[in-house]
Specification:
Elements: H1 4-16, H2 21-33, E1 56-63, E2 66-73, H3 76-89, H4 94-99, H5 104-107, H6 116-140
Antiparallel strand pairs: 1-2
Length: 141
């Protein structure tokens, strides 16, 4: 499996093909369409990410030292953003997630091209994924 940084570099390469942000938004939306559906039973208040304008649900499972994330959103762009994070961080150890510097967000300009509420939502998603990693790491010790 690629390292988080190798996977981030691939994302940056994929986005560097486009100059126009409308094309980049389309790419993000397409990524969301490829996100595996979240079991409706997991769309609970406990799995809902606070700080997102849209509904975003994130579930994390921990098996054999690896965290697997699943997620969904009722907003197509947000679903694409969460799919980027799920694809990047799912299948990793808690330490890999906790030590990850998610530089791709700045590199592709995502932080500059989201509304303030969407940007806060993105930060809330990253924070929640790192909180899961911290909790699983603590439980494993």
């Amino acid at each position: 499996m690629k390292t988080i940084n190798e996977a981030q570099d691939e994302i940056i390469d994929e986005f560097s093909v486009f100059d126009d942000w409308m094309d980049k938004y389309s790419l993000i939306i397409d990524m969301g369409k490829n996100l595996a559906p979240l079991d409706p039973a997991l769309k609970t208040p406990q799995n809902r990410i606070e700080g997102c304008q849209s509904n975003v649900w994130l579930d994390a499972q921990y098996n054999d030292g690896i965290i697997t994330f699943t997620a969904d959103s009722d907003a197509i762009l947000v679903k694409g953003i969460v799919s980027l994070l799920v694809n990047l961080l799912s299948g990793r150890t808690p330490d890999e997630i906790l030590n990850a510097d998610l530089y791709f967000i700045q590199q592709i300009g995502l932080n500059e091209h989201l509304s303030p509420t969407r940007s806060n939502g993105l930060l809330a998603m990253v924070k929640q994924m790192k909180m899961y990693a911290l909790a699983f790491k603590a439980k494993a010790q």
